[in-house]
Amino acid sequence: MKFFIDTADLTEIRSLAGSGLLDGVTTNPSLIAKNGGVFAKVIAEICEIIPGPVSAEVAGTEYDQIMAEAKVLRKIAGNVCIKVPLTPDGLRACKHLSNDGTMVNVTLCFSAAQALLAAKSGASFISPFVGRVDDIGWDGMQLISDIVDIYNNYDFKTEVLVASVRGPNHVIEAAKMGAHVATLPPAVLRSLFNHPLTDKGLATFLADWAKTGQSIV
Ligand code: G3P
User: Does ligand 1 lie within 6 Å of residue 105's CB atom?
Assistant: First the structure.
């Protein structure tokens, strides 16, 4: 399973890049607004830090505007992945861009039917928002399971990118289902390391090692 990080915070991205665990980055207009900075410059910096796909979302909603913005964004770096909304115009742009060899991430997916349309439009990634589905009392992980099943039935090349992840359980459940990618807020990625028995065991080993009076180097 690939891990993307869901942030536009350059400090966080730099700090987590050293973990060797990051395969890509996703941003959205809300994350850009939250962190500030000139959009194109922020994306360019992220693309330098992380060589994998970096999602940059268009702000246009009509086909011509989406295509015009995509042309600007994809010039920023070779690893820019154009993020488009799951609308008729967004999917039309997705088809066109994908045919041209541009990576496209289709965002704001909340149903298996929408995911099927994105795959047929040649998307590189489909982004179902599990947390937001859970927030309205539906089952976000059932949505992932349905999409993975459908894509496997037809051998679609579109990768399932689990988005709106709220905690480690979303990541584990998605991995069990065979989702290709999870995009994680930095705090969720860090939380994956944690286990109280690891902390307790390490404290014991270090205390016992100190008793030996030895050093390795
Ligand atoms: O980038 C899309 C997605 O991950 C947004 O998550 O937490 O705003 O629902 P959230």
Answer: no
Answer whether 6 contacts ligand 1 (Cβ < 6 A).
Answer: yes
**Does the global pTM surpass 0.90?**
yes
**For this structure, is 83 an active site residue?**
yes
Name the closest-CA residue to atom 4, ligand 1.
164
Render the chain in DSSP notation, one character per residue: -EEEEE---HHHHHHHHTTT---EEE--HHHHHHH-S-HHHHHHHHHHH--S-EEEE----SHHHHHHHHHHHHTT-TTEEEEEESSHHHHHHHHHHHHTT--EEEEEE-SHHHHHHHHHTT-SEEEEBHHHHHHTTS-HHHHHHHHHHHHHHHT---EEEEBS--SHHHHHHHHHHT-SEEEE-HHHHHHTT--HHHHHHHHHHHHHHHHHT----
Average pLDDT, 10 consecutive residues per value, the chain (217 residues): 98 95 98 96 98 98 98 98 98 98 98 98 98 98 98 96 98 98 98 98 98 98
Domain 2-212 in CATH 3.30.420.10: no
Nearest residue (by CA) to ligand 1, atom 5, is 164
- Answer whether 131 contacts ligand 1 (Cβ < 6 A): yes
